Amino acid sequence: MIYLTESDILNAATIDEMLDAIELSLRIYEKKEFHMPQRLHVDHQDNVLLLMPCFTKDYFGTKVVTLFPDNPAKNVPVLNGIMVLNDSQTGVPLALLNGPALTAVRTAAVGAVSIRHLAPDNAHAVGIIGAGVQGFHQARAACSAGRITDVFIYDLYPEKASALKDKLLAAIGDVNIHQAARVEDLLEHTQIVITATTSSEPVLPDKEKLLAGKHFVGIGSYKPDVREFPRALYGLLKTVYIDTEHALEESGDIIVPLCNGWLRRDQIMTLGRFLIDKEPESRARQETTLFKSVGMALFDVCASTLIYEKAIAKGLGQEITP
Q1: Count H helices, E strands: the chain?
Q2: What integer best gives the mean pLDDT of the chain?
């Protein structure tokens, strides 16, 4: 068995390879070519424990994740965890992966796949709301998914946005990085908007004029009473795309609009179904679109499979004894 650090995970596969692996996992999800028990979601006070197992043909894996929203005040990341990848034929553990790094790259890839297929044809600028770890990875993946020339960053704490700007400049130097003073400024300059916050209230203004014609990617809302998008957005949408049916039960960005009649159930489609059915992308790219991701264990197994196989080929990772 090998242990793969954050550095190993980032160096094992390219961003494009990760996007391809996640796009494949969306198709596997629609074809039911996997076994994924319902993930165990435990709320304790304001904290969350997730236990996420999944089986595919050649591999299975289990990720244990904790989400502690108050951790930044303790100088500890909000998200922590570990991933175990096993051989499906023998059950032998093959790899132990850094959970936060795996989650970061696969979640960013999920959002970027939606950009590949739904973003406006003229999209060249991405807005990142939330300057945390996921904001960094979402920006990198989004730039790989489209012809992006500019990234705009907004965070309630300007110093965090400034730090992310510097980090992105070092990571993707061929793209212009800007720090927005207001969310409205970010919206005026971008065609793709990614929300990656821990906010329980909408982080965008409730103004249709500022929201129309864009592609939105929602990452932050993971509880029924937590949402990042305002009511005005739903009045602009013909279809809402989700990564998994679990979003109907887990995210306030889906649950609240359904309960209030801002959104109908028949307006919701999984991104995998969109890909499988070969829905006309040209039409979707001309509309205001929203993709909401809550994640699933299948993503982790498919991403871990790619990372493990590439790491073996490149000689990455540290051998450990189970």
Answers
A1: 13, 15
A2: 95
Neighbours of 129 (CB within 10 A): 28
- Confidence at residue 281, expressed as pLDDT on a 0 to 100 scale: 86
Phi, psi of 34 (to 5 degrees): -165, 170
207 token code pair: 């103004």
Nearest-angstrom CA–CA distance, 153 and 145: 18
Q: List, for residues 88-98, the tens digit of each pLDDT value.
A: 999 999 999 99
Q: How many CB atoms lie under 10 A from the CB of residue 45?
A: 7
Residue 167 vs residues 131, 160, 181: alpha-carbon distances, Å: 11, 11, 18
Strand order of the β-sheet with 192-195 is 176-179, 150-154, 125-129, 192-195, 215-218, 288-292, 237-242, 268-270
E strand segments, 28-88: 40-44, 47-55, 59-67, 79-87
